[in-house]
Amino acid sequence: MDKQVFMIGSKGIPAAYGGFETFVEKLTEYQTEDKIKYHVACMGNSNTEYEHNGARCFMVKVPSIGPAKAIYYDIAALRACIRYCRKHSMEGRPVFYVLACRIGPFIGHYKKQIEKLGGVLYVNPDGHEWKRRKWSAPVRRYWKFSEKLMVKHADLLVCDSKNIERYIQEDYVKYHPRTTFIAYGSDNSPSRLTSDSESYKSWMEGNKLTPCGYYLVVGRFVPENNFEIMIKEFMASATSKDLVLITTANDAFLNKLEQRLHFRSDRRIKFVGTVYDQELLKKIREEAYGYFHGHEVGGTNPSLLEALGSTQLNLLLDVGFNREVGEDAALYWRKEEGSLSALIAEADAMSAGQISALGEKAKKRTADAYSWPYIVNRYETLFLTGKQTETDTGYEENR
Prior knowledge:
The chain is of the alpha/beta class. The chain is built from 14 helices and 14 strands.
């Protein structure tokens, strides 16, 4: 009988533009084991089912109830998975894999039902959601409390960062959490676009950019991604290159930054909106002189992997998550005043050979440790055997 794996917590597949959505898309796209059957919860307005990448995808209706929508969705999806297992008399220890720690206060109740089915509960704790500055203090406390209960009840926590795994083991030692490390994956293929492709030429001309004439930032426009520091330090630098920011809209945050920094007076700084065409975005990365990465609260960040696979010169905020991924294939800056501006001067002075050498290291790093076929193979081993021998911390499914 096939191994039944229920995926809960992504918005669904075909993938939307998001980390968990891309993960589930690739997990099913690169599937090699015909002994695994995936069941993927998808947020929608109906209760229909369909097949995608060989997975059974089922829609979960969710009302528009503001910030609580994601919590409602995860609970409704988990309940639907449990009902399906009961209806079809599932055997062989079905796996319920919950992405993120949104439903901790409720998970104990559903864990008992999963145990009655003979199933196991896996949880991906994601990053430090409770540290995000966009949340109010009460919401942050909820996230931390919810995380604690997800850790307590999970049979296994699958961490996509070694730093997150260490944090789980140290902060929740009283629960003796069982953890394993499997990173997020990355697409290492070059863009299908060329320098003469119309969409690329039009985008570059429209934003008055030249190849290798700009530093690039890609990411959600939120405070914890350190946009303020990156813009301030760039303004303090003497570089003749532009700073291109591909990011989501957040007018309130944008206006705050303008009041503090007056960045609109610097013609080098260009907010260009979002780019959802993945081939175009990859080409923009490839043609950047360098990439700035200021994320500090996540695990293995998808945008960092994409940068390392596409941009030769990467300037990363010096935190454990980024060091873990970039190793010696990138340059690092700190949040102290003058650190990034000095690194920009250093980067501007690098020779083509030095930059190329870093780029080769970065691409090898992502190809060796973060390629989707490699990551999917590790997940398939986990789902079928219940353990990862390389890094598993004390977990055996048939304990």
